[in-house]
Amino acid sequence: MADDITRIVIVGGGSAGWLTAGVIAAEHAAGSKVSVTVLESPDVPTVGVGEGTWPTMRDTLRRIGVSESDFIRECDATFKQGSRFIGWGSRAGRDAYMHPFVLPQGFLDTNLIAGWLQMPHVPYAELVSFQPHLCEAGRGPKQFATPEYAAVANYAYHLDAGKFGQFLRRHCVERLGVRHVADHMVSVNARADGDIASLQTRERGALEGDLFVDCTGERSLLLGRHFGVGHVDVRSVLFNDRALAVQVPYPAPDTPIACQTVSTAQRSGWIWDIGLSARRGVGHVYSSSHISDAEAEADLFKYIEGSAGASAKDLGAPMRLAFDPGYRRQSWHRNCVAIGMSAGFVEPLEASSLALVELGATALAEQLPATRQHMEQVAQRYNEAFAYRWERVVDFLKLHYVLSRRDDSDYWREHRLTASVPDSLRELLQMWQYRPPSRYDLTRVDEVFPSASYHYILYGMGFVPEPRAARASDDLRRASDFFREAADLTRQMLPALPAHRALIEHIHTRGLSKI
Ligand SMILES: Cc1cc2nc3c(=O)[nH]c(=O)nc-3n(C[C@H](O)[C@H](O)[C@H](O)COP(=O)(O)OP(=O)(O)OC[C@H]3O[C@@H](n4cnc5c(N)ncnc54)[C@H](O)[C@@H]3O)c2cc1C
After folding, report:
1. Range 473-491 average pLDDT
2. pLDDT single digits (tens) 145-168
3. Which residues contact 191 (CB under 8 A, 6 or more apart)?
4. Which among 304, 309, 313 is positioned nearest to 252, based on CA atoms?
5. Which of 80, 163, 302, 313 is catalytic?
């Protein structure tokens, strides 16, 4: 039939474009009429950053048929077991807490908070989970013999963004039958009804399709420029709009590799520090309304010199990035869906961007409308789901700032002003004064951040609730059993898991067994 949706054209060959291509092609493989084409400009580079992921990436890579060993070797990837936040609570920089990926021990069985309040000197995550102790000791999340994608401790990855795009492109083209067109889109050809008919390329004429996926990054060439779908600006909530990124060599080949993203708060932003197999990726995200580019660069190099002995003069000029924190009012308009930075980008804290790409690509692949008549309904649901997700991402990221007690700059003080806090987050904070975050607050199946993540940030930042008294004694007894369980697991796992670098080197030389 003329209005069947079979030709999917993705414009953009960054992480978003190739992940989306892989997910759709894998879902609609053998015997399907669906074809996937990626149009990628040889002139426009990818954003070149995006090294931290969320544990969902394991499932996405497995699902599209990637070998985990190949991915780790070819993308300089390492394992990530969470994020460590330094200096977010107070300026002294002595305060640090972790947001690990494993659930707190007993999380689904009891209220652990009353028990934790009895021991305020022990950081929440260290009491309820073995994972911060694994990271502290530099252990990897699995053994040499653990098969691909299986875990002893839940994990995500750190990866080289440039290498990741090339790796996915090869995999999609060679294994999944995706067509790659290296050409520059110069304009959009519309049909009489307003849908996109084709993309005009510089060398190869018009590229026709039934459904177009905008993965053109911040430019948002289809959804933003062509269709004019508006941008929801969240700068008044999350102030960061600039970043500087550098690649830092390890001082020696056997330098330990961190198994967590280290996020260190600065006077007007924060610095990410990510350990890959061949180098570190370090960047400063900051607010241009609060600090100059030169000051931000000086702070970045001061951090690097203090953290690894690398000298600023050996590193060269940092990559400079500017972004408008926010997201498109709708991600899907007519026969066009935006995925990746074309749909929105808030800031890199907690690495939600690629997780949203995975959610978008999966939702699109699984709900791909069969005909144009089905599209409006699917689009409406998709837009509703993503409007909700963007709001939750904004709330969750703001939580990291609003609980800070730092008083050393306008940046931190303004983050606490009532006017900068979304109503939705303010209401949740009021409720969490009396009960911990739970499934009643986050009701969707595919929440970007589960309620356990809110626990780790809230109590890591030192939020002190007033738990209800009635069940407190019962909760206390059960909680202390779970704290003991977490400590026992720590004792068992520490000697049983290899050092992170040793695990990565084992994968480079021997690989992991397949499941
Ligand atoms: C400072 C910073 C740090 C970040 N850190 C993280 C992180 O740790 N974790 C995370 O999940 N995310 C992070 N992100 C976001 C992450 O980088 C992106 O989500 C991810 O790389 C996907 O980008 P993209 O594919 O949407 O866009 P891009 O990588 O910008 O790709 C755009 C593509 O569109 C193509 N294109 C553009 N114009 C045309 C045209 N006219 N014709 C044809 N093709 C065209 C380009 O050639 C390119 O291939 C970060 C972002 C920034 C700015």
Report:
1. 93
2. 999 999 999 999 999 999 999 999
3. 197
4. 309
5. 80
How many Å lie between the centroid of ligand 1 and the Cα of residue 443?
30
Residue 50 Cβ inside 6 Å of ligand 1? The answer reads yes
Residue 11 Cβ < 6 Å to ligand 1: yes
pLDDT on residue 7? 97
Give me the chain's average pLDDT, please. Answer: 95
Give the separation between CA 89 and CA 147, rounded to whole angstroms. 39
Best residue for ligand 1 mutational test, from 214, 219, 282, 354 (most atoms within 8 Å of Cβ): 354
Q: How far apart are CA 196 and CA 222, in angstroms?
A: 9
Say if ligand 1 is within 6 A of residue 458 CB. Answer: no
Closest alpha carbon to 25 in 42, 8, 45? 8
Look at residue 93 in the predicted model and tell me its pLDDT: 59
Which domains does the chain show, CATH number per domain? 7-51+160-232+324-392 (3.50.50.60)
Confidence of residue 253 (pLDDT cuts 50, 70, 90): very high
Is 142 in the active site? Answer: no
The token duo for 38 is 């990626």
Rounded Cα gap, residues 127 and 130, in angstroms: 8
- Res 96: pLDDT: 94
Both tokens of 202, joined, read 């510089």
Question: In the structure, what pLDDT confidence band is assigned to residue 307 with cuts at 50, 70 and 90?
Answer: confident
Give every CB contact of residue 174 below 8 A, 6+ residues apart in sequence: none
Residue 144's identity, in one-letter code, is F
Mean pLDDT of 287-308: 95
Q: Which residues contact 159 (CB under 8 A, 6 or more apart)?
A: 51, 53, 71, 75, 76, 77, 78, 276
Q: Are strands 242-248 and 280-286 parallel, antiparallel or unpaired?
A: antiparallel
Amino acid (one-letter) located at 331: S
pLDDT of residue 21: 98
* E strand spans, 87-230: 96-100, 156-158, 179-182, 185-190, 196-201, 206-208, 211-214
| One-letter-per-residue 3-state SS of 301-315 | HHHHHHHHCCCHHHH
pLDDT of residue 475: 82
First-to-last CA distance in the chain?
Answer: 41
**pLDDT tens digits, residue range 195-245?**
999 999 999 999 999 999 999 999 999 999 999 999 999 999 999 999 999
Query: Rounded mean pLDDT of 351-375?
Result: 96
- Residue 373 token pair: 């008549």
Helix (H) or strand (E) holding 320: strand 319-322
34 lines ligand 1 (CB under 6 A): no
Q: Are the C-beta atoms of residues 57 and 354 closer than 8 Å to each other?
A: yes
At residue 363, the 3 state secondary structure works out as helix
Residue 271, Cα to own-chain centre: how many angstroms?
Answer: 16
C-alpha atoms less than 13 angstroms from C-alpha of 458 in its C-beta half-sphere = 25
